[in-house]
Amino acid sequence: MIQILPSGIANLIAAGEVVGRPASVVKELMENSIDAGATSVTVNIADAGRTLIQVIDNGCGMSREDALLCFERHATSKIKEAHDLESILTYGFRGEALASIAAVAHVTLKTRREEDETAISVEVADSKILSTTEISAPKGCNIQVADLFYNVPARRKFLKSDAAEMRHIEQEFIRVAMVHPDKAFTLKHGGRDVRSVRPASGLKERIMQLCGQDISKELIDVRSDTSVIKISGFTGSPVDARKTLGNQYFFVNGRFFRSPYLHKAVCKPYENMVREGYTPSYFLFLECDPTKVDVNIHPAKTEVKFTDEYMLFDVLSASIKEALGKNSFAPSIDFESGEILSFPSPHPSSDSGGLFPFAGRQDAYGAASGTGGSHSGYAPTAPNDEFDIPAADNAGRNFVSPRPNYGKLFEESLDSELNVLLLHGKIILTPTPNGVAVINVAKAREAILYHKYYSFLTKERFISQRSLYPQQIQLGAEIHSIIMENVETVNKLGFDVADFGDNAIIVYGMPDGFPADEEALKDAFDTLASQLGREEGEDPMADYAASLARSAARKLGGTALTTVQAQMMAREVFDLKNTYGTDLHTHCISFIDDEELLKRI
Q1: What's the pLDDT at 365?
Q2: What single-letter DSSP state applies at residue 269?
Q3: Is 243 helix (H, G, I), strand (E, B) or coil?
Q4: Could you say which of 92, 246, 371, 454 would form a disulfide bridge with 545 (CB–CB 3.0 to 4.6 Å)?
């Protein structure tokens, strides 16, 4: 039998489309404040939004009649006729936000207009007005949302941890604050300032306020004005591309939106300029005729539809390419990537089975610049029985390569004193009984550190080296939030970190052998955040070890080896070969027998 749902149930169902989590409430209320002409907006949060979300603004306020009417479904001051939908330039136009919030929380609204002597306080719960009272209050609106999802326990159960929910709240806060640099915004959690930005002189200053002062070094100005669309904002330098997403923002007519399609348009000009899996930052503002874009295709209005997306793709991609070209960035051949030597191996190497995330790539990370603190080009692993690399048959099934039979090439032992030839600091040549071994220095560093860190992690006895002078590291908002949400896991990896506030951390210690260098630490936290922010794979310890080894090896790649260090590196690579075979998960060693050498002469 078909029946009409009671209004209370209908409101709960509708609320599910608009209010997905506390961050959804913050977004809707902040956007209402902007529409009300506020120049200052304060957001107070308690228990990551579970018990309290309060938004205070100095906007125009509401009359008594409007304060009561705003909680009705589809109550709006933005739309009067159907054609108004084609010229939307404000945020809340469907009149669903307050009605949806009031259906799943206890709401108290206090508001006053400039011309009114007294303010009005309205209490609402279960979509019903409980009381109205005249009070004294400043001009603007003060709305409190308490006990979110109190009447929908199943919804409340699916909320994430406080750190995760606060990360989403911060994201929404940043998206609103980003596009309004002329306004002041404050975000507090538990009475503590999380974010506070004063009115900025322009977009670049607002980006620096929200994303850190360091980001100014990588911003490239983007400007394009065509008959199709006007594009302004900034894109990031290719050398500062990160593996973790977080500083990618699209706005159209002042409204944040997501678009995987246009994201590809931005990334296309960066081809051959950034490492695989890395994404540049961008803060792009699009302005177009409101009739050419539909912002009403998603309940949260985070997706939009353009009438001519294909042309927009080309215009956007060309604008980014032009901006990069003006700043002397252009695709070029990377002589540091690819196999250094492509000698055929006498025996096929086994596949790494997906354990080492970058095993299939032939990148050599020797192009990193700088010397990396006080570390030399190669830090040999000290012998330690407790942390010896485990035998192949006792190691995890996903990361062991069975030792193949290499025949006479390795039957005789190598000389105790290895004769090595170091070519351009990138390749080590050393004779074997029946030929020569060719070692990629950058990948050998990575392989040695990987197996060392993996051994420590699997034994849960990571050796951490204390820093003489603790370092303050400034991170992006997204990365900082993920690192602090998983700080126990990060510390188990050999780091000793603590929150310093304002998206910064203090590093008191780091894994043994890891370079005490700010850029290396930033790269490590960036990569770790990308892994901690996703679901764990089959062997998360291998992923963590790979991340640490990769970051450390890249930084050490800019330092030169001495002959003694080259001998020690070759010795360690041979020791790894005896345990794991020649694959080593980074393909850092190849062997050429005498017969093959003679064919090349």
Answers
A1: 31
A2: G
A3: coil
A4: 454
